[in-house]
């Protein structure tokens, strides 16, 4: 599977090379939801079609290469990885793309002390990263303490243990250096609220591209102060009130003080409240 070079139009621009570059498919052909060209030949599977000599599956072009013309890649850029992940999501249960065979995304970072989830075919385990071992470029790994047992775990099987309410700093990728609270999570993609003037989700980032850190509230206003909320879990589930304080616990997650309509104060986690609409 190959990805489109969308900054090109139907044909390449002038080149100083004597060798003419091959004609590239128009960018529109890489969007299965909007591509309605009359010469399209659609196959039985959804989002699979052909146009002239090109075949497309789930937004990517299928091409055949001789094995001798290929070499392993150490990393894949974030934007390209996103295209393959989108195609895999679109394909559903089809074994179109095996993510475990792909290069390590260049925006993943692991440091000693990171709390991680180890994914395997049968179960999940939890551990703490002791060191990163990158000698084998095809299969980099981390030394992980799993309940006192030291294991070597391939990096592609690790997911940092980040939950709603954690405060993070981005350590790699296009959002490098940005900080904020985790306000949403879908699989391994985090939604981040970056500042006190924000109204919600400011950007998205992969869970393995961040590290836990502690926010500095010394010169900032209390976020969400006086925002009306509904408590959705715990002993006060169903109650309404307003936010009166936000602090960070020793576990680096949010503790939100809510003054209920009854006049009582309660402290809940970020995941236990929702803003009233």
TrEMBL record:
Residues 1-25 are annotated as: Disordered. This is KOW domain-containing protein.
